[in-house]
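We now fix the convention by which a protein and its fold are recorded. Here is one such record, which you should read through line by line:

>
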Amino acid sequence: MFSIIIDKKSYKEQELYFKVQSIAKSTIDYVKEIIKPGLSLVELRKMCENKMLELGADSFWYYNVGAFIFAGDETAKSVSGKEYITSNYIIKNDDIITIDLSPQIKNIWGDYARTIIIENGKIVDKFSQIQNNEWKIGILTEEKLHNELFNFATSNTTFEELYYYMNDFIKKCGYINLDFNGNLGHSIAKNKNRRIYIEKGNKKKLSDIKYFTFEPHIAPLNSNYGYKKENIYYFLLLRCIGNGYPLLSIKGYRLQFNSYRSIPYSQLLLRYSTR
């Protein structure tokens, strides 16, 4: 058996992070219900931001941009939120859209991005049903990158080590990193100017930070289309009090450990805040 080591203060904070991230996830689910050809990105951004406020967000931490949205060949574009202007682009019958959401509650951030595919005027929510092969492979490659994060990252991995490893893995997949600064994610802070990044030269360990994002923005070589998927990750401290392979939960949040090795005493396990 195993026990979770978490004090009351940390538990309350973690619950708030889960809540804010759930607002972002629920907003993406909402978008999948209302998005349609003929809708402009300006309208879509407004709908996303209004939904997040309705669900409990009090503001947006990323330069007051709640929904960072691109579509079509603009999905390969990478700019800072300081420079972002929502395009008047009109969603087409067959289209690709990236949405990156940044709600906050009392300076607690959510950060969640997904790539949405529309074909024949309808959302395609299952990989196997995507007809455009380039789009299908792009979505699956994002999944592969996030899975590889779990394979590679440990509590002793530095931000720089993750930067080099994942950028090399992206190249091996036949893709390029589109980020305008070349990084792959950042710490979750309470001041956007104090974020640290998954970048060259950052010697801090991932476990030195309470929460961090992994958000590769990628494209195949010589393609017009980019792909994004972003989750918030954190390490969970477990204490071993026996043998076995646990399935743990904190108020309904399923924390699954996928391993067939014995778990050392007080091991840090990498987790994501919500799917």
Remarks:
- Residues 2-272 form a domain with the Creatine Amidinohydrolase fold (CATH 3.90.230.10).
- The longest helix spans residues 8-34.
